[in-house]
Structure formats: structure tokens, C-alpha cells
Amino acid sequence: MQHRNDTPAVALWCAAYAGNLPLVERLIMEGVDVNVWDGYGRSALTFAADAGHLAVAQRLVAAGAWVDPFEEDTVFMTPLMCAADRGHVAIAEYLLEQGADPTRHGGTGLVTAEFYARGQHAYLAAILRRAEDGWHRQA
User: For the structural domain made of 67-139, what CATH number should be given?
Assistant: First the structure.
């Protein structure tokens, strides 16, 4: 979906970031597209992953949110990169289970999610390195 700044999409992004699951569910039921992103490439799933709201992330994915929403090598961070950057292990593991590509490059440094976790989140970085190795073996 293209970048938009209409009120329903903004309401969904804010609800996802705040962890307001009842409002996220209501907006989804009202037909708000879960795959709309803002001018910085952030979708509702990106906001939920960044803020550490696993239940919201799970609901968004169940509603069809893309776990890997962007082309390779864009300046945008994927939800997995945001979870890694913030150290949200449960969300990163969930996104990996849902098929998020740990080898995808993006963000301002065009790096993988493992890079974002490396500085302050060694355990999560190890999980992501293991996922990257598994992904490479499958290819």
C-alpha cells in the first residue's frame, strides 16, 4: 500500500504504538488497511514492534500485515529491525516464525536486523545470527 496520512491510518499507527489492542481490533474491523505506511516507511506493525507490543503485532499479522513490507536495500527499517533495535526478543522471535527475512538489508546504514541488535542486545543478536545462518542454508 502506498504512503498515506489519512486519519484512519494515523489512528491505527497511534493505537499500535500505544499498545491499545481493543482500538487496533476495532479499526481493523472497520476496514482500516494494516499495510499503509507513513513517509518514513513505518506501518502499524512497525510501530507495534518498535514499542514492544507483542499482542498488537500478532493481531496485525493475523489481519494480513506484511512482516517484510519493503524492497531490499531501502532506507526503511522492517518491523524485525525495529524489534531488534529496541531489544524486543519475543517480537523478533514471533516475526521470524511468521517468515520475516533476517537477511534483508535496510535502514539508514542498509544493514540487517542483527546489526541493530548487536550494540546493546547480545542475546537477540545471537538469535538473529542463527536465523540468518538458517536462512542462507535454505537459499
Answer: 1.25.40.20
